[in-house]
């Protein structure tokens, strides 16, 4: 069965989609079979792997609203071992449509994933920067949550709400849900400030913080515009090396 990891942080601009796309790519590069799920209506992860969200005819929206089964919507990417369940502009309406449903509105992704998870080693879910039903569906389906935190002064601002949601779901819908890890992003350890923020985050989350930190990187910023993961675009760049190191940490933690 696949390990299902939700990449979540309701704060925007922390490298959430960058991490979802490039962790998926790095895991695939290391020989694991990966499904990337784009649950963000903005469709940035979809575009980052070379799919035009505006041209996607069937998407996660159709899966969540019962119009299609998941296996009919998953698409291959240009990277061997990696597939995507794409988003489309219609996904923005899924929250509202599911809110009016009385049955299984929090379980729809989980039930669909049960159809295909045996085909993958990892399922990586790029969550939207909100705590609506799309996010709840991701967290109910997931085994764990990876939280990207930017190395900045207000890094943990608003994080309490996400942690509260995780605790509630542990008590109700998903007792096995755990924090997979906390990832420091956009780090520049040449500065005292980044080091101080990292120290505070490590003090709070302790061993949950990955040893790997993701640096600021021009290549990481450029890769999505080419429709490629960093391992395809510039595997030996600082960003490429960092995400491969992160993927190795994720694999290693899964063996413990």
Would you give an account of this structure?
The protein has 256 residues and is of the alpha/beta class. It contains 11 helices and 8 strands. It has helices spanning 16-29, 44-48, 60-64, 94-99, 108-113, 133-141, 159-171, 192-205, 218-222, 230-233, 238-255; strands at 3-7, 34-38, 75-76, 82-85, 122-126, 144-150, 178-187, 209-215. Strands 3-4-2-5-1-6-7-8 form an 8-stranded mixed beta sheet, sandwiched between helices. Helix 8 links the parallel strand 7 (178-187) and strand 8. Helix 1 (16-29) packs across helix 11 (238-255). The mean pLDDT is 91.
Give the CA-CA distance, first to last residue: 16 Å
Total beta strand runs: 8
Q: Which percent bin holds the helix content? A: 25-40%
Rg over C-alpha atoms, rounded to the nearest angstrom: 17 Å
* Unreliably modeled segments: none
Task: Give me the strand/helix succession.
Answer: EHEHHEEHHEHEHEHEHHH
Largest sheet: 8 strands, mixed
**Given the structure, what is the number of helices?**
11
Mean pLDDT reading: 91
Structural class estimated from helices and strands: alpha/beta
| Percent in strands | 15-25%
Main sheet: strand order: 3-4-2-5-1-6-7-8
Shape from CA axes?
Answer: globular
């Amino acid at each position: 069965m696949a390990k299902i990891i939700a990449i979540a942080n309701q704060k925007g601009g922390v490298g959430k989609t960058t991490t979802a796309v490039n962790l998926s790519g790095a895991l695939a590069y290391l020989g694991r079979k990966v499904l990337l799920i784009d649950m963000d209506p903005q469709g940035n992860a979809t575009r980052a792997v070379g799919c035009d969200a505006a041209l996607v005819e069937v998407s996660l929206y159709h899966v969540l609203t019962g119009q299609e089964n998941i296996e009919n919507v998953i698409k291959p990417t240009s990277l061997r071992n990696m597939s995507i369940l794409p988003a489309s502009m219609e996904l923005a309406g899924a929250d509202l449509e599911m809110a009016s449903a009385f049955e299984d509105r929090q379980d729809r992704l989980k039930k669909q994933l049960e159809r295909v998870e045996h085909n993958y080693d990892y399922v990586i879910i790029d969550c939207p920067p909100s705590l609506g039903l799309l996010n709840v569906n991701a967290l109910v389906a997931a085994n764990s949550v990876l939280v990207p935190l930017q190395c900045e002064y207000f890094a943990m601002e608003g994080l309490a709400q996400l942690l509260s949601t995780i605790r509630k779901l542990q008590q109700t819908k998903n007792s096995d849900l755990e924090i997979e890890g906390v990832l420091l992003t956009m780090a520049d350890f040449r500065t005292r400030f980044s080091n101080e923020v990292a120290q505070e985050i490590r003090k709070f989350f302790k061993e949950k913080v990955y040893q790997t930190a993701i640096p600021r990187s021009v290549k990481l910023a450029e890769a999505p515009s080419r429709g490629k993961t960093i391992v395809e675009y510039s595997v030996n760049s600082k960003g490429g090396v960092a995400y491969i190191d992160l993927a190795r940490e994720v694999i290693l933690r899964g063996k413990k």
